[in-house]
């Protein structure tokens, strides 16, 4: 058994990490997909950087941050994800990154088609519809069959590519925010390339809990968060553009503060959260020390499997996310089949069992309750969840 998988089950080991995070008394948080916690040391570093920038103001920012620190931090980010520094630019979050990539994609012609599916983030859907409207393109929307399998997901895209020969661009979500389904990105991207279709990848929930290599995935355009599974302060994300594809994304609304050959021109020029950015070197250091996505992902998957295996076969419970290890991560959704109102059941989980979850709708498969353990979650809390689900079903 690999060390990461064996260690994922070691409650005493993970308690040493959980102790590094301050947790407010109250409900057990099983909605860790919204954003992640900073460790105590990261919070302290962030506060120091807030005070530093408040004291030094533009003197530090103009002389040090803009001239060197920001570039060095971007280089550290690039090293963390295994790409070159000229392929990443900071944004406030994945949504900002994806909107920039979509609205500035310049290869669409009138009569072309763009593709979205039911599992895409609503902001991404809206951006793709906006792009199509302003470029004279047609939006193709598909629903994925449920329950999903690796083969069914790939087949749906292959069939769609063959049916719509004018497709030029598609959105693809690595980890779907509604159910936690992990898309077979590499296979889908390869199939898209066969038909000359570009892919803009939504990696908001992937970075930090799934191991991947962007070159191996074959992705040219992607947007990510740093405040979900990496442990950074809020307001931090980034976009990725493969260096040989930079010209296919225009400077954002004619942005001219940077040369046209600089990826930073593909984002709005504004004053960023400088103290948060200055905190990233420590965030990256702690992320590596914890074992990165290999260790985090193994732990989250263990916690997920603990409750899923206990309720998967219970009448009245439907786990929406498959058990194929290629298609799941720590985020998983379920629903009560004997109760129509999933929001009411989420409120019961909170009121009767002190378990905080979130409902999600919009998928063709129907509304669900999304359950997302975090690094402070324990096996005992997963058992409490499975017992609650059994009683409420």
From TrEMBL:
<keyword id="KW-0663">Pyridoxal phosphate</keyword>
<keyword id="KW-0808">Transferase</keyword>
<feature type="domain" description="Aminotransferase class V">
    <location>
        <begin position="69"/>
        <end position="355"/>
    </location>
</feature>
<protein>
    <submittedName>
        <fullName>Aminotransferase class V-fold PLP-dependent enzyme</fullName>
    </submittedName>
</protein>
<dbReference type="InterPro" id="IPR000192">
    <property type="entry name" value="Aminotrans_V_dom"/>
</dbReference>
<dbReference type="InterPro" id="IPR015424">
    <property type="entry name" value="PyrdxlP-dep_Trfase"/>
</dbReference>
<dbReference type="GO" id="GO:0008483">
    <property type="term" value="F:transaminase activity"/>
</dbReference>
<dbReference type="InterPro" id="IPR015421">
    <property type="entry name" value="PyrdxlP-dep_Trfase_major"/>
</dbReference>
<keyword id="KW-0032">Aminotransferase</keyword>
<dbReference type="Pfam" id="PF00266">
    <property type="entry name" value="Aminotran_5"/>
</dbReference>
<dbReference type="InterPro" id="IPR015422">
    <property type="entry name" value="PyrdxlP-dep_Trfase_small"/>
</dbReference>
């Amino acid at each position: 058994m690999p060390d990461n998988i064996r260690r994922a089950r070691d409650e005493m080991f993970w308690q040493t990490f959980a102790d590094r995070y301050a947790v407010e008394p109250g409900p057990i948080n099983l909605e860790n997909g919204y954003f992640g916690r900073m460790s105590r040391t990261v919070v302290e570093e962030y506060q120091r950087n807030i005070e530093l920038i408040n004291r030094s103001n533009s003197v530090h920012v103009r002389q040090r941050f803009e001239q060197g620190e920001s570039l060095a931090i971007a280089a550290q980010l690039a090293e963390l994800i295994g790409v070159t520094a000229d392929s990443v630019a900071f944004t406030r979050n994945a949504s900002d990154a994806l909107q920039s990539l979509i609205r500035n994609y310049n290869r669409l012609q009138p009569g072309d088609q763009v593709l979205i599916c039911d599992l895409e983030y609503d902001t991404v859907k809206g951006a793709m519809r906006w792009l199509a409207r302003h470029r004279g393109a047609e939006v193709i929307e598909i629903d994925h069959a449920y329950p999903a399998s690796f083969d069914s997901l790939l087949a749906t895209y292959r069939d769609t590519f063959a049916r719509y020969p004018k497709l030029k661009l598609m959105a693809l979500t690595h980890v779907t925010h509604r159910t936690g389904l992990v898309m077979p990105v590499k296979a889908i991207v390869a199939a898209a390339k066969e038909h000359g279709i570009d892919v803009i990848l939504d990696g908001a929930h992937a970075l930090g809990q799934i191991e991947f290599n962007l070159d191996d995935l074959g992705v040219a355009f992607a947007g990510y968060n740093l405040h979900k599974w990496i442990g950074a302060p809020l307001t931090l994300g980034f976009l990725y553009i493969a260096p040989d594809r930079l010209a296919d994304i225009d400077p954002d609304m004619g942005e001219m503060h940077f040369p046209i050959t600089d990826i930073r021109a593909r984002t709005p020029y504004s004053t960023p959260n400088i103290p948060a950015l200055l905190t990233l070197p420590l965030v990256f250091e702690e992320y590596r020390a914890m074992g990165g996505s290999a260790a985090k992902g193994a732990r989250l998957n263990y916690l997920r499997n603990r409750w899923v295996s206990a309720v998967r076969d219970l009448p009245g419970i439907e786990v929406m996310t498959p058990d194929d290890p290629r298609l799941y991560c720590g985020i998983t959704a379920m629903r009560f089949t004997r109760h129509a109102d999933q929001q009411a059941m989420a409120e019961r989980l909170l009121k009767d069992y002190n378990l905080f979850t979130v409902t999600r709708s919009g998928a063709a498969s129907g509304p669900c309750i999304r359950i997302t353990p975090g690094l402070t979650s324990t096996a005992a809390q997963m058992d409490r969840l499975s017992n609650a689900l059994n009683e409420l079903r």
